[in-house]
């Protein structure tokens, strides 16, 4: 059991370490095309999970870059927004609901300049979620932890993330089960109603035809 748990922790840790470090070029476009040309990086994140977004927006001549961080709920939670930004950024927050968290970058070309290949900005982004979003160096310096204690703290955070994910999956499974049971109950009653309606209609047709044929003296 311990070996299995340790294996799960290692697998989960490897997944988290492989998270999202991306780098791309974002062309500058006129103001009329900013929305359609924005570039978004998204990841599903459960509720009450720490997210750390770090990155860098490179220099760009006559370009205005910005970004917005929000989720995809009906009323989106906005976790950060900058309309003009250059240089390194760091944004940490706890999610308020289950959903897909996205960071969208825009790069607008200033008035008087025509769109051209040389007008681009380099965007670097690292998207960390859960245990990987913790600043262990800061924790180590403030609490004076050794290397082994830091690693144990990191594993503890990963295990907590796994437990949180399992609880979330359990809640989803319970909701799906309730939905299935409710649907089955409705289908059952609808089927019984349909069967009763068909039987009643069949009986009425037999009685009506029997009465009709008797009036016509076709049967006794």
Structure in words:
This protein has four helices and eight strands, in the order αβαβββββββαα. With 220 residues, the protein is of the alpha+beta class. It folds into two domains: 20-133, Sandwich (Jelly Rolls), CATH 2.60.120.680; 147-220. The protein has a four-stranded antiparallel β-sheet with strand order 1-8-3-6, with no helix packed on it. Strand 4 and strand 5 (78-82) form a beta hairpin. The protein is elongated and about 100 Å long. The model is unreliable at 1-18 (pLDDT under 50).
Give the fraction of residues assigned to helices.
Answer: 40-55%
Give the distance, in angstroms, between the N- and C-terminal Cα atoms: 82 Å
- CATH top level of the largest domain is Mainly Beta
- Structural class, by secondary structure, is alpha+beta
- How many DSSP E strands? 8
Element pattern in H and E: HEHEEEEEEEHH
Oligomer: single chain
**Shape designation:** elongated
Largest sheet composition: 4 strands, antiparallel
CATH architecture name of the largest domain: Sandwich
Number of helices: 4
Biggest sheet strand line-up:
1-8-3-6
Q: Roughly how many Å is the radius of gyration?
A: 30 Å
CATH fourth-tier homologous superfamily of the largest domain = GOLD domain
Uncertain ranges: 1-18
CATH fold name of the largest domain, please?
Jelly Rolls
Instruction: Tally the structural domains.
Output: 2
């Amino acid at each position: 059991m311990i070996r299995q748990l340790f294996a799960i922790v290692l697998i989960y840790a490897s997944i988290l370490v492989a998270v999202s470090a991306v780098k791309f070029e974002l062309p500058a476009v006129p103001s009329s095309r900013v929305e359609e040309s924005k570039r978004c990086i998204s990841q599903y994140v459960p509720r009450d999970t720490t997210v750390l977004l770090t990155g860098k927006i490179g220099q760009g001549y006559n370009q205005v870059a910005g970004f917005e961080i929000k989720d995809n709920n009906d009323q989106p939670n906005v976790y950060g927004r900058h309309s003009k930004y250059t240089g390194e950024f760091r944004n940490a927050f706890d999610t308020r609901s289950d959903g897909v968290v996205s960071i969208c970058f825009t790069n607008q070309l200033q008035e008087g300049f025509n769109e051209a290949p040389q007008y681009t900005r380099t965007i670097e982004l690292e998207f960390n979620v859960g245990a990987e979003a913790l600043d262990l160096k800061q924790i180590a310096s403030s609490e004076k932890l050794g290397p082994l204690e830091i690693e144990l703290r990191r594993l503890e955070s990963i295990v907590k993330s796994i437990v949180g994910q399992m609880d979330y999956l359990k809640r989803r499974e319970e909701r799906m089960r309730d939905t299935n049971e409710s649907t089955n109950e409705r289908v059952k009653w609808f089927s019984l109603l349909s069967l009763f309606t068909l039987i009643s209609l069949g009986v009425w047709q037999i009685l009506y035809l029997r009465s009709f044929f008797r009036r016509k003296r076709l049967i006794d």
